[in-house]
Amino acid sequence: MQFTYDLAPQLGTQATIGLVTLQSDETIEHDMRRIFPLDGVAYYVTRVPSGTEVTNDTLAEMEGNLTGAASLFPAPTRFDVVGYGCTSGTSVIGADVVADMVKKGCETKAVTDPLTGLITACQHLGIQRLAVLSPYVAEVNSSLISALGRAGIEVALLGTFNEEREEFAARIAPDSIADAAETLAKQGDFDALFLSCTNLRTLDVIDRIETATGLPVLSSNQVMGWHMARLAGVDPLQRFGRLMR
């Protein structure tokens, strides 16, 4: 027996959002599903090959795979925004190059990333001097500092867990992140704290750190989720930190 059928509209009556995340990332998908509402928002994820160790070389290698990863989204989908989920990768490859590579693989009105989200958040909050907490090694941190400097944002102080292995970065305990950030906040004069890396479990400690330090606290997933929501014209489901209030 053969049946006829009606066609329903595509999902995403309010917005359609895409995420290109790293093969090695264990955190960002979970965080983004907490930030974006489900009602009326279609949310699609694809992954790009990435190294198990984080160096400038392994980050740069992602450039050649970004278009292929974006092309694995459902073909008929037209996105309001696509985010590339790698802070350090963007600082090495360049935000403009990332956007070009993603747009070659899918149709989207806008592309953003944690670095672009951070710069936009700093402009929004009037932040010029940051303290940065990163899980990564010196060469990766240097690329981020340089990228922020080109955007007119000074990194006044850097703290790091000095961890090259992605799987360990993903498992740094939120309490360890909060303790390190609160210690860092006592060391200098700056406008805000930035917790760098989409693999860090930061969302649940942002408010705690802000309360303890009195400073705005930004994190990779928070700033990119905030920027994606603004670009897509949707309100976040949950709000984390002063930026999203």
List the helices and strands and how they pair.
Blueprint: E1 15-22, H1 28-35, E2 41-48, H2 56-61, H3 66-70, E3 78-79, E4 81-85, H4 87-93, H5 95-105, E5 107-108, E6 111-112, H6 114-125, E7 129-134, H7 138-150, E8 154-160, H8 166-169, H9 174-185, E9 192-195, H10 206-213, E10 217-219, H11 220-232
In DSSP terms (H or I, runs of 4 or more residues), the helix count works out at: 11
Q: What's the count of strands?
A: 10
Poorly predicted regions are none
Structural class given helices, strands, pairing? alpha/beta
Q: What coarse outline follows from CA principal-axis ratios?
A: globular
Reported for the largest beta sheet, the result is: 4 strands, parallel
What is the percent of helical residues?
40-55%
- The N- and C-terminal alpha carbons lie at a distance of 55 Å
Radius of gyration using CA atoms only: 18 Å
Tell me the name of the CATH class of the largest domain: Alpha Beta
CATH architecture verdict of the largest domain: 3-Layer(aba) Sandwich
Q: Write down the overall mean pLDDT.
A: 96
CATH topology of the largest domain: Rossmann fold
Strand content of the residues, in percent?
A: 15-25%
Task: Count structural domains.
Answer: 2
Strand arrangement within the widest β-sheet reads 2-1-4-6
